[in-house]
Amino acid sequence: MNYHWNWAIFLSDVPSGGETYFGWMMDGLEATVALSLSAWIMALVVGLLMGVLRTVPNRWLSGIAAIYVEVFRNVPLLVQLFIWYFVLPELLPLSIGNAYKALNPMLQQFMAAMICLALFTGARVCEQVRSGINSLPRGQKAAGLALGFTLPQTYRYVLLPMAIRIILPPLTSEFLNIFKNSAVASTIGLMELAAQSRQLSDYTAQTYESFIAVTLAYVMINAIVIILMHRIEARAHVPGAFGGEK
Amino acid sequence: MYEFDWSSIPGALPFLWSGMMLTLKITVVAVSVGIIWGTLLALMRMSGIKPLSLFAASYVNLFRSIPLVLVLLWFFLLVPSLLSNFFNIPRSSDTRLVSAMVAFALFEAAFYAEIIRSGIRSIPKSQVAASLALGMTYAQAMRLVILPQAFRNMVPLLLTQGIILFQDTSLVYVSALADFFGTAYKVGDRDGRLVELLLFSGAVYFIICFSASLLVKHFQKKRVS
Amino acid sequence: MISIRNVSKHYGQFQVLTDCSTEIKKGEVIVICGPSGSGKSTLIKCVNGLEPFQQGEIIVKDISVGDPKTNLSKLRAHVGMVFQNFELFPHMSIIDNLCIAQTQVLGRSREEAVTRGLKLLERVGLSIQADKFPGQLSGGQQQRVAIARALAMDPICMLFDEPTSALDPEMVNEVLDVMIGLAQEGMTMMVVTHEMGFARKVANRVIFMDQGRIIEDAPKEDFFSTPRSERAQQFLSKILQH
After folding, report:
1. Disulfide check for C209: which of A68, B74, C34, C160 has CB 3.0–4.6 Å away?
2. By residue range, what is the domain housing residue B59?
3. Residue B1 domain-assigned (yes or no)
4. Chain B neighbors of A78, CB-CB under 8 A
5. What does the alpha-carbon distance between residue A145 and residue C77 come to, in Å, rounded to a whole number?
6. What's the predicted TM-score (pTM) here?
7. Domain count, chain B
8. Chain A touched by C63 (CB under 8 Å)
9. CB of A164 within 8 A of CB of A191?
């Protein structure tokens, strides 16, 4: 076969000097992790809020949340990203828009990707929160209200603590999804991990090594997140719930 | 305030339509092959044969832990070089569409495998026992009793995954293939009306996917009643 | 203390309650019985505003429950309710279950809440379980804790919605004993139940409901000896057989 394997290429310096190719890959990993974590935190906040709104008796509030979910679920992630990156700056008021466009391009890419991922994932978190709350026995809400809690207090002290524990497994999936979806940011030029696989392959011509290394990096991120979430699930476990020990 | 100018769109409709055709082509191929291959993977994983179940489990776990973008890049960059390095097939543009379809099918199969596996597991074991007690082999029990029931339960989930796949085809952008989104982008870029075309493509996707999901919900309601 | 006047409620096309009226004085113990679907649970849920009603009025100690201007949370802080399925909060320990509403609704300090909570747990015979979680207790124990949780709010009256219906037979008495003790101490109680032995012991009056209406409302001796309606007679003969 014509291909010449060379794993040591990662330790070679890049043409511009100052870093190794491995360093480039690490830069990509850093960008992926930073983007995913910041988007995840935003997604949790938005998703929790919208999920609660989805379940309140007020028709207007739950309707707004429903519209939010449908809009962000039925448009492809890539299209949403392009809209945040290309369209939003044009729709802002002229002064703000110009100031934004003057920012560092990488910052613009990062922010567009972060907001896009946060709102996209937030819609999915919203649905999880909603199904978690709806899966609780009806009497829990009644018991909270009967004690004199207001509805917000009932959500805070009675419904949400249990609902969140119930949805920890599907939330883990969404957390993993954000890491994978962050790769879409490569299409607007953000040099995260997936973009690095292409750049490394272009510069080193060692296509197979580049791709295998990046693939392994994603697999590793996956494994770490799963272990982390298992730890959290164990610590959040309520004694006696779900048919546990008596 | 931005001055909207939608005049690019009517003239570009034939072009956009051919892009949509490509999107649909990829979706249909990936869904069909994905379900077939996904069913095989699910059955392999549930079989007692260690090497098979190990292979299926690793396959599913691998494809579910890496981004679709990466898989598309893999196939876009590596498959042509693989073909020319190993099989001496010259690179051409047709290979791009084929490699995209293969990439999608292989990727989505992993997700279909999980849906199908949990669908099969949701059928009570007593159904298998009853079939075997009637003298059927395990293969017959699967084919005649378990799989038909499992699939009927899974249809909403399979359809929803199909809608997701339809949206994911937009990612062939990284392979420079002219699907609906790629075409819309090209038109917008060419005419300097990117904003309008992006919003237009977003609206089209929304209408298609929202209607499809309403159909699925309606279908689910009919089944239950 | 509690006045229910001409209360009617419908849910869509379905008429749940029709023209229900009764008066409950302070210290009275009222037992509400009747076949399932008669609206008895709905009626007591209207008393603390958990269920809205379209016609009539309910006055709890000068507060009109149906008035849109009434602060329902404030009302509910002073009306205790015990549910058929106990409804303890599974993610909190027993003592936390008792304290959470005291601190967050009544504004008591944590120390005061814990002291009162422990006293009540002792009263229902469960002080050693204070740090356990609801999932680790039996049904009878959970219901006794639920009663203590309601009592911790120093309610002016207590509403019981089929408190023993979800319990295994051997645990029914431990809960009824607590309720009997409460009645003998003079608590105003509305109890929806099938337990006629309890009614005979401590009830002042028995209300019989059927298909959303109050059919009979009589002092207990009268009710058990000479029920006036045929429906009530049928019902009594069926449930008193065992």
Report:
1. C34
2. 8-224
3. no
4. 170-171, 173, 181
5. 9
6. 0.84
7. 1
8. no
9. no
